[in-house]
Design brief:
heterodimer, A: 396 residues, ABC transporter involved in vitamin B12 uptake, BtuC, B: 428 residues, mainly alpha, globular, disordered N terminus
């Protein structure tokens, strides 16, 4: 017990985190279910957050302190706007249970691809090709589910396709020692060309049929009557639960097993790893192929679990957001999952915001990308990549 | 292998002289090839990519890939060059005419198609240069797409407003504003890289999507830049560029989209690119940072400043591409254009295949312009190959080119394998 308490952050850092939380509260009180209509309370709470931030700043906690101040200012601004907006709009946009459920749906493909990215980068291979591997998974998943009539085979074929794309990337990055960013980018081009070509060739102008075998939802009947949790978790797609499991499993494998230790060693100092007898090339191949398979599962969830159709370039940059998730999450599964949820939430919000303005609906679509940009810029100094990521290794 | 080599030319390049007791690696020998201006590897790369593309055509459709490629070749109007004769051409700004081997009257299909190819060539050169310039500073600018879009948006906005401005001034203002918009947009990524070290690949991609949705919003229904034509409220398109701010057409019929003077801007940009990099202090510093940021910093060069400047200059090229496309032949932009344009991405393939050199970019842009035009619905004979398929084939070939260019070591690797096997045999 003492060990746990001792590891809790203490002092000014805690104050700064408290400031960030208070800043969020300033916004929250103006939203459903509280819906306070007076702007005074958000302003007061926001000022408290700013004060906490200033205190943390004076104690030398710069980044978090500024974070608390920014959250306080944001909380005042957004809270004030919320008290000005009509109750009808608020009730329409901020439906917490629906927002949370949508957040999980949007975060799932990101989580799969990000976990894949973590494996690849932890082994020392940059994987910009996540986007292409996702897209391959999305297309070949729906193709197999359609032609073979089973979503299980769809997932299997998707993983196979993503794994093959990753194998190409791995061969060029590991054996040919090509620039990994250029190689990964080529994978994106290739995937776009291959899936687009086959999609037109097989499905033509009509698009994918509507009677495709889909990944089923998991009904948890006993949950459905629970307050708040029921509507969120009661009926989720199987892949969302699998994604959660993958995150936990990835953490266990990476940080609690010898395999994970070896994989990380290869990504930090390949020469040292080879000296103690770890096969560097084989480890990297395995990690990159695994990353492709995971990214492809995320893509397959998009096509046969989420929207149940395919169109050209349907991943629309999600692979790149997953890459940002990897970086913001400091190459750690749980932190990455937290960021995947953040981006999932911004996508979910973007989907509901058009209630405010029809014409600005498209503009809200940019929200997840803007948040990614801010997050990458804000977090980058604190995240430390694996020492040898992006560097080809030459066997001795 | 401890220091990350600059990504110039895409491949990992080692200094052969610092190799120590290692035998010069494949990559080191490749670096020498680059210096020798090796044309062989890009050529082989292209041929290999076309070969695999041909296999795809053969396997999936059973059609003869050569007929398909010939149709694309003719769709691009490149057969115009094959009909050599004795003709005359006027020299711009004069009345005199001189002898010319090709027929410049614009009544043949080949000439019409070639004009289309060259119109597509202009933005590809510029976005290719944008990517190449950032590469020379050790950065991968994937944001050509977004920078092209903001350039186009600003150009269409200025080009359709401010009536009464003299034509040339109007054009200059619109073009410069478009280029500046691209510079500012790319500058954000450069600034983030220089100050907090955010990787430019991620920031530029995110900026691409910001530009895309912002553009879709600007011209969408109810957007601030939507047209004010009568009954145009339901059409998501911008205003038309005013007649006096359109670029002159110097070859072909203006009504049928002839070739505009932006072509010369593209050619001039190639020269400017070469001059900036090789004949100015700025270019020297940019290249020094690209080769080795640590060494450059040690030598007194501000790495952060050069990251920002290189990115801004890179964005200038891409923004220029957008502005010239608008004033040259598009004249308006609708939300669908915003979503479907891939010029920024093709620019990456152009730069990589062109080895980030001025001449290389000039040549590879022609290849991709011809591929894009040759596979468009308007130019490709649908009896021979479905254009929707062919445009994806273009993407595939682009991907293969980038893949092989990124690892042109492949070619040398195969060569070295053969050599090694031969020496083993002689030892036996």
């Amino acid at each position: 017990m003492n060990r746990v308490l001792g590891r809790l952050p203490q002092g000014p850092r805690t104050i700064a985190w408290l400031g960030i939380l208070v800043g969020l509260t300033a916004f929250w009180v103006a939203l459903p279910p509280l819906k306070l209509r007076t702007p005074i309370l958000p302003v007061v709470i926001g000022l408290v957050a700013i004060a906490l931030g200033v205190y943390a700043l004076r104690a030398g906690v710069k980044r978090l302190g500024w974070g608390a101040i920014a959250t306080g200012i944001g909380g005042i601004g957004l809270g004030y706007l919320a008290t000005r907006s009509s109750v009808g709009h608020l009730d329409q946009v901020v439906v917490w249970s629906a927002l949370m459920a949508a957040m999980l749906r949007f975060a799932t493909p990101l989580a799969f691809a990000a976990i894949g990215g973590i494996f690849s980068e932890r082994s020392g291979v940059t994987n910009i090709g996540l986007e292409g591997m996702m897209l391959s998974g999305a297309f070949f998943g729906i193709l197999a589910a359609d032609k073979l009539g089973s979503w299980i085979l769809g997932l299997a074929i998707a993983a196979l396709a993503g794994g093959l794309m990753a194998l190409i990337h791995a061969f060029f990055a590991i054996h040919l020692r090509a620039d990994q960013i250029v190689g990964g980018f080529a994978i994106n081009f290739l995937a776009l060309g291959i899936t687009g070509y086959l999609f037109i060739d097989i499905y033509g102008g009509e698009g994918t049929p509507t009677d495709i075998s889909e990944i089923p939802d998991v009904h948890l009947g006993f949950l459905e009557s629970w307050y708040f949790v029921g509507p969120i978790l009661g009926q989720l797609n199987l892949m969302i639960w699998l994604a959660a499991g993958t995150v936990v499993l990835a953490w266990v494998v990476l940080f609690k097993t010898p395999i994970g230790l070896r994989l990380r060693a290869v990504g930090e100092h390949p020469r040292a790893a080879e000296t103690v007898g770890i096969p560097v090339y084989a480890t990297r191949y395995a990690a990159v192929v695994l990353s492709g398979m995971l990214a492809a599962l995320g893509g397959a969830y998009l096509s046969i679990g989420f929207v149940n159709s395919f169109n050209q370039n349907m991943t629309a940059g999600r692979g790149f957001i997953a890459l940002a998730v990897v970086i913001c999450g400091n190459w750690r599964p749980f932190q990455a999952a937290a960021f995947a949820l953040l981006f999932g939430f911004s996508s979910a919000l973007a989907q509901r915001l058009p209630a405010y303005s029809e014409s600005a609906a498209v503009l809200f679509q940019a929200l997840p990308y803007v948040i990614t940009l801010i997050a990458v810029a804000g977090v980058i100094g604190r995240s430390i990549p694996p020492a040898s990521v992006g560097r080809p290794y030459k066997k001795q | 292998m401890s220091e990350q080599a600059p990504p110039e030319g895409g491949g990992k390049v080692e200094n052969p002289r610092t190799g120590g007791d290692y035998a010069p690696s494949v990559a080191a020998r490749l670096a020498l090839w680059h210096k020798a201006g090796g044309l062989a590897v890009p050529l082989l790369t292209t041929i290999l990519a076309f070969f695999i593309g041909g296999l795809v055509v053969l396997v999936t459709t059973g059609k003869n890939p050569l007929t398909t490629y010939k149709a694309i070749f003719e769709g691009a109007g490149l057969n115009w060059f094959l009909e050599v004769g004795s003709y005359e051409i006027g020299i711009p700004f004069t009345e005199s005419r001189v002898w010319f081997p090709w027929d410049t009257s614009f009544n043949s299909f080949a000439a019409l198609n070639l004009q289309q190819t060259l119109i597509a060539y202009v933005p590809l050169v510029l976005t290719g240069l944008a990517v190449a310039f950032a590469f020379r500073c050790g950065m991968f600018n994937i944001g050509g797409q977004g920078q092209y879009l903001v350039g186009a948006v600003v150009a269409v906005w200025i080009g359709s407003e401010l009536p009464g401005l003299p034509g040339l001034v109007h054009i200059l203002v619109a073009v410069i504003a478009g280029a500046l918009a691209g510079a500012v947009f790319a500058g954000i990524a450069g600034l983030l890289k220089a100050t907090v070290g955010a990787h430019e690949v991620i920031t530029t991609i995110m900026l691409n999507y910001v530009a895309l949705w912002a553009g879709a919003f600007a011209f969408g229904l109810g957007g601030p830049l939507q047209n004010d034509n009568e009954g145009g409220e339901s059409v998501p398109v911008s205003n038309d560029v005013l007649d006096e701010s359109k670029l002159n057409v110097f070859w072909g019929d203006p009504v049928l989209q002839g070739l505009h003077v932006g072509f010369f801007v593209a050619l001039a940009a190639l020269v400017v690119y070469w001059l900036t990099l090789n004949r100015t202090t700025l270019g020297y510093e940019v290249r020094a940072v690209g080769f080795n940021p640590e060494a450059a910093r040690y030598g007194g060069i501000s790495v952060a400043r050069n990251y920002f400047l290189a990115m801004a200059i890179s964005g200038t090229f891409a923004g220029l591409a957008g502005a010239i496309d608008i004033l040259g032949w598009q004249f308006r932009i609708n939300t669908n254009d915003v979503f479907t344009t891939t010029i920024g991405f093709t620019g990456i393939a152009v730069a990589l295949l062109g080895r980030n050199t001025a001449i290389g970019v000039g040549l590879s842009a022609l290849l991709f312009a011809a591929l894009n035009t040759g596979t468009s619905t308007r130019n490709l004979d649908p009896e021979i190959f479905r254009p929707e398929l062919a445009s994806n084939l273009t993407l595939l070939i682009q991907g293969l080119v980038v893949l092989f260019v990124g690892a042109d070591v492949l070619v040398l690797y195969l060569l070295s394998l053969r050599k090694r096997r031969r020496t083993v045999r002689t030892q036996e």
